[in-house]
Model the fold of this input.
Amino acid sequence: GENVEQHPSTLSVQEGDSAVIKCTYSDSASNYFPWYKQELGKGPQLIIDIRSNVGEKKDQRIAVTLNKTAKHFSLHITETQPEDSAVYFCAASIGDNAGNMLTFGGGTRLMVKP
Amino acid sequence: GAVVSQHPSWVICKSGTSVKIECRSLDFQATTMFWYRQFPKQSLMLMATSNEGSKATYEQGVEKDKFLINHASLTLSTLTVTSAHPEDSSFYICSARDLAGGFNTQYFGPGTRLTVL
Done:
């Protein structure tokens, strides 16, 4: 089955700096890669996702890149703000197969210091 | 759009009682919902996949008789923790799959904190 590894497990940055979180996956058939943000005591919130037919997707300060050959994808947050502090999870799935579930990475705790 | 609700948000119960958690997709129909369990500072652990109108599929190691799942409609799935014990205390989160556009997008509920005394 699919295995997703996520690094780093914790990341501390200064407000205004950029943050990068990286994930690798094992199943070359995976073609859908969402990122979730989870604040303390809340459920994960989908913040951005990418499908394997594109290499990069951007939404304001958030971007995701995908390297299918190397089987890794990354989340980039620019101009970080204290409210970006949370745990971020990457996931992988065969997205167009209704029977397939998401496989999550271990999570990254991002701390943005004001 | 794509809002998932959970009720209750937290519950405290005595050991041996049963607790029901509801998961609703508010603005879309979800033929498939998922139930996860999350321990402090850990990732989400999939417990079961809930399919509307059929039996749930449980992950290895999850007791189906203890964690009863019912997906009676396209917008509602329930998880019942039967005869709860302190070790069942955890954060339970559901998600609903929105197949609009043909892809496996999952939206999560806010979670339910269960504490068993």
Remarks:
- Chain B touches chain A through 26 residues (CB under 8 Å).
- The radius of gyration of chain B is 14 Å.
- Residues 11 and 114 of chain B are 5 Å apart (CA to CA).
